[in-house]
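Try this one yourself first.
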């Protein structure tokens, strides 16, 4: 981690301004980061130092810093302090059928995976709900840690809706550490995902998941479920993914439904 950076008062807190103190402090911190080119990993002054420097309460400092943490500008580490954060990664969420590999590489990122297992498993629990299969059916499960720019950011479980030993052996022989599962399914077996549905919700890291993602127990995660379908609506693949919330973000575009009286529709990216 870098040395503590000095936040210089550039105009300071204006006591008679209509803008709340915490919002003024946010702008001072953002200005310092931009003008001095502060890199990710630089340590900010402590709450006590910032209170003394700006003549504001600890509540003001906590609100300003807390909002910048939420916005992804700053990053807190327990027992170490608050640092300038690395920019979060944005993954396409709903408007495209491309997979994680194609999405990240299209934005210039390096993607690699550690394949933990590729097995034939019985369809059960949540995956059976997503696939809509009968009891006793089998599918192919691919479990991976996903890394972007050499940093683990997600843990995924992909389920291909085929009980096909030839496909199983093909996937085991393929290099999924640097390649795309969707590309293999399409190019080698004609399984092209044309549509689907994804959902996202907030969750926290358990002990095992925390270890897999390199975060602390209880740290926030983004949990994603997806169902990919072929041209006639048949399920090709489902996946469950746990993303580090400190490294990924949700973006949303809003468009008007073209139907008469249509409401605003959201197209999101995570």
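Now uncover the answer:
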């Amino acid at each position: 981690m870098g040395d503590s950076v000095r936040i210089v008062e550039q105009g300071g807190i204006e006591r008679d301004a209509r803008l709340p103190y915490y919002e003024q402090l946010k702008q001072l911190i953002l200005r310092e980061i931009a003008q001095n080119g502060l890199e990710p990993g630089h340590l900010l002054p402590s709450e006590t130092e910032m209170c003394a420097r700006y003549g504001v309460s600890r509540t003001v400092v906590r609100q300003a810093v807390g909002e910048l943490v939420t916005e992804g500008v700053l990053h807190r580490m327990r027992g170490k302090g608050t640092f300038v954060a690395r920019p979060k990664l944005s993954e396409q969420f709903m408007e495209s059928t491309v997979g994680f590999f194609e999405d990240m590489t299209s934005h210039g990122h390096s993607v690699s995976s550690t394949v933990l297992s590729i097995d034939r498993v019985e369809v059960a629990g949540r995956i059976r709900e997503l696939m809509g299969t009968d009891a006793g059916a089998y599918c192919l499960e691919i479990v991976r840690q996903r890394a972007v720019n050499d940093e683990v950011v997600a843990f995924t479980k992909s389920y291909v809706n085929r009980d096909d030993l030839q496909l199983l052996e093909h996937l085991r022989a393929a290099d999924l550490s640097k390649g795309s599962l969707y590309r293999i399914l399409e190019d080698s077996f004609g399984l092209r995902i044309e549509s689907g549905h994804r959902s996202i919700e907030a969750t926290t890291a358990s002990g095992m998941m925390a270890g897999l993602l390199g975060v602390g127990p209880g740290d926030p995660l983004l949990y994603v479920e997806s169902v990919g379908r072929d041209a006639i609506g048949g399920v090709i693949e489902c996946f469950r993914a746990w993303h580090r919330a400190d490294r990924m973000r949700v973006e949303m575009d809003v468009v008007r439904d073209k139907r008469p009286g249509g409401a605003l529709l959201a197209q999101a990216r995570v």
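Discussion: Helices lie at 21-35, 47-54, 58-70, 100-106, 125-131, 165-173, 181-189, 207-213. The longest helix spans residues 21-35.
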